[in-house]
Design a protein that fits this description.
- There is one protein chain.
- This protein is of the alpha+beta class.
- The protein has 15 helices and twelve strands.
Length: 434
């Protein structure tokens, strides 16, 4: 569905809203006026979007506040030379509605959606912080593992063939199939560009020049990433968030909210799980670059490793519990596994299924790491390390881990093997640092 082609009233036909336009528009919506309170002229409006794609406004009145997100017809990070369909706002809204139903209280509440304007007004998460920024500051979030594992288990299981009839599942795939422009960004920026010469690639030069060149010549790596790309394109296992990193998670000490699901589509479950784990691994290996004195972040880093282990173990436990109690889909029909022997065989197959899913998770975590260091859009986990050489050292450690995870995924049989490998690389020194 191309929102740019949709008919709309003169007022609601697409246009980029600036502060005055947005104030007038919101003032015409009684629900929003009641939410904000006071006179529209007194509302404060500030544009705070620091992401790659959209405008984001914080609007506050005497009674409360809202967040307003409007899609731009191009990639904000690059500019008008990279056009992008406004339809992504439709898919984001649709995903938020599904996620709110499947994982209550773990996404922001939608207050208003305007399809022709590609605009959504939602709950203002005023007390929350972008998780990535909190991790840079060595802040621990005691409820994060519980919350994100619930979000992953609920959204992935209940949109899979394990929970849905074949017809329901195919309808879900169809509902999100038009979001191919956002999928194309992923297919290029994650699975292709870091492994070839691409105009928008960048890395911490000159320290990582040799590593970037080696990745472009590494045919074993090219085969491995191509297998992951094919799985991404051809395995519609469940409805994915599609961009689930620590920059799209907002947290407090007691709450977690997953935001920005505009990349949503039906794909391989391991992509979302791997995105979370990969970003936590990057936070861990970037941590040394944020130290003021050696060892001051040791306990925080230990918590990060525990969180990585907890994300997988708790997701796996919850997903299996749902499979045992809520398996109403057409996958693995119960009628084929009758009796004690059938139940035992099905349980063994569940364990094998999770082992395969873990292998996917390891590979996708590696892919997400590599793209954030050698591709276009980087993580502030590394970017905010002021000393370029120290930044490159931290990035080299992450790349070394990611390459091994991608090429030797089958040797990572448990999440503990992943955190052990990360811990072993915490003090490794690349050649340029010696």
């Amino acid at each position: 569905m191309n929102l740019q082609a949709q008919p709309g009233s003169g007022q609601n036909a697409y246009r980029i809203l600036r502060e005055a336009d947005l104030r007038d528009y919101l003032a015409s919506l009684p629900t929003i006026v009641n939410q904000l309170g006071g006179a529209p002229a007194d509302w404060s409006i500030s544009e705070v979007g620091d992401g790659n794609l959209n405008l984001v406004f914080i609007v506050k009145g005497s009674s409360g506040g809202i967040a307003v997100k409007q899609a731009l017809p191009y990639v904000r990070l690059v500019g008008e030379s990279w056009p992008l369909p406004l339809s992504r706002a439709h898919y984001e809204h649709l995903a938020l509605v599904h996620q709110a139903r499947l994982a209550p209280n773990l996404v922001p509440a939608v207050l208003h959606h305007d399809a022709p304007l590609a605009l959504t007004a939602m709950e203002l998460l005023e007390s929350h912080i972008i998780m990535r920024k909190g991790l840079i500051g060595a802040t621990r979030y005691p409820h994060f593992v519980e919350d994100i594992s619930t979000f992953l288990a609920q959204t992935l299981f209940f949109t899979s063939d394990l929970a849905l009839s074949a017809a329901e599942k195919k309808q879900g795939i169809a509902d999100f199939a038009g979001n191919h422009a956002l999928c194309k960004i992923t297919e290029d920026l994650i699975f292709t560009d870091p492994y070839r010469i691409a105009e928008q690639n960048r890395w911490t030069a000159p320290y990582l020049d040799a590593t970037a060149a080696a990745f472009r010549e590494d045919l074993d790596l090219h085969v491995a990433i191509s297998r992951l790309k094919l799985k991404f394109m051809a395995s519609p296992e469940a409805l994915l968030h599609g961009d689930l990193h620590t920059g799209s998670i907002m947290v407090t000490d007691s709450e977690t909210r997953v935001i920005d699901p505009e990349f949503a589509f039906y794909g391989p479950m391991g992509f979302d799980i791997g995105a979370v784990i990969g970003n936590l691994l990057m936070a861990y290996l970037a941590s040394a670059g944020h130290e003021r004195t050696p060892g001051e972040r040791a306990s925080f880093e230990a918590w990060l490793l525990e969180s990585i282990e907890g994300v997988w173990s708790e997701f796996s436990r919850k997903f299996l519990e749902l499979w045992r109690s809520e398996a109403k889909g057409d996958g693995y029909p119960v009628s084929l596994f009758a009796g004690e022997a059938g139940a035992a065989r099905l349980e063994a197959e569940r364990q094998a299924y999770m082992a395969r899913l873990f292998q996917d998770t390891v590979g996708f975590a590696a892919a997400k790491t590599i793209r954030r260091i050698l591709g276009l859009a980087h993580n502030i986990d590394f970017e905010w390390i002021a000393d370029e050489k120290q930044r490159a050292i931290c990035e080299a450690r992450a790349l070394k881990l990611a390459r091994n995870m991608m090429l030797e995924a089958t040797s990572y049989t448990t999440i503990g093997t992943v955190t052990y490998a990360a811990r072993e690389l915490r003090h490794w020194q690349p050649d340029f640092a010696r």
